[in-house]
Amino acid sequence: NSIIQSPDNAERLDLIAAIYEKGDMDRAVIELESYLKTYPKDSLAWVILGNAHSTKERVDEAQLAYETALK
Question: Which of 12, 21, 26, 58 could form a disulfide with 6 if both were Cys (CB 3.0 to 4.6 A apart)?
Answer without folding.
Answer: 12
